[in-house]
Amino acid sequence: MSAQATQQELQTFLLDEKSNMKEIQQTKRKSNTNLEKSEVVHLNGLEYFDPFLERNLEHPTTDCETLTHLLKASLGTGILAMPQAFQCSGLMTGIFATIFVSAVCTFCSYSLVKCAHVLYKRTKVTAMSYADVAEVAFANGPEWAKKFSSLTRQTVLWLLFITYFGTCSVYTVIIATNFRQVYMFHVDTSLNLRCFIGMLLIPLVLLSFVPNLKYLAPVSMVANLLMAAGLGITFYYLLCDVPNINERPLVTQSIDRFPTFFCITVFAMEAIGVVMPLENNMKTPKNFLGFFGVLNTGMGGVTVVYILLGFLGYLKYGEETQSSITLNLPTNEIPAQLAKICIALAVFCTYGLQFFVCLEIAWTKIQESFEKVTNFHNYILRTVMVTFSVLIAIAVPTIGPFIGLIGAFCFSLLGIIAPVVIEFATFSDNVTVWMTVRNVVLIVVGILALVFGTASSITEILVMYAPEVPQIVTAFNGTAAQ
pLDDT of 313-323, one tens digit each? Predict the structure, then answer.
């Protein structure tokens, strides 16, 4: 893949959240102008606006290219935690539960794009971001929704920010943990994981100083190659000396571990943040949907890969499965060391892309609030944000609960609840019984994942890093009972 192609891919993934209702109106006027210049389509004597014919892209992506981008977006570092997810569910339960999570995530993404296609025609615009869809759906929805349109947009934006910012902290932990294992093998000196995380601060700040996506493109290209090499070696180890399937439980032995499975899987599989950017850049947007459309095809392939890695990883290592499967690879073997280093470097390079998403959202807010901001302030913001993400990783240097927390809190809201509510607002004048039942069930699933998943992740963090807290709570409950 050339640097130019990688730059285009990065631009596709970067969320364009600078638009607002004012800009949507400008796009609407521009679309009307384009319509006057082109052949006007009439249906029964009435002017008909086709947003896909009016979409004018300099470098549109084909269906195949969009599918490739979707696979890359979904097959992120979350895949490394899938064996731990299967550890929480059991082998057989993990397979069916992963399919269920995939179906929910895919349907909600499908619903979001379907609403966008309807709103394109209503507002005569040709493309929208996730935040745009949320705002326009409420602004053009029922009376109760109109007053929440601006709030809905801001909520989506900040949830996206928290999601990607939290992911940056998770990446920092993954990088440090893999490097630490290799270091500890070659150097007979014990060094705390937090020290390794702290040492990443300067390199990450320098990476964040890359001015734009053009210069980040070669870095992302290297990340793709490194991740492919690391996962290839990992699969090699998983397929060597595979234990008998009877040695592992097919069903979870403890139901209270299941929320952890759900949160990790949602974090790993959810790609709601890139769905609209991908659709906005397609040459044939209608092909994104459909039974054999780009979305369903891509998520089907992703589901198979996640099931394979989760199943094989837990089958191979059982209860010794760690939060990132690379940590289970034998550190004394050169191929395993190369896998750890490759994946750590790949995650380091990918940090830049995740960080750019957060930076764009935060910097846009600052520009809206302050008139006299310069590039100097932009680089101060970059430094502060990277420092804060590293400090969070130092405070919680455990991958599993952190991934679960992001999956439970952010992706339950962004990936499940928000698209369902947006659909209600978009089709408020044509809500069927089936839509009501289906969406209420999805909202309940999202709320359960939000509440129990968040509580489970926070409890795990407290138990790991504040063991005295449960003792205090138990003592307090005992005193209250007396």
Answer: 999 998 888 88
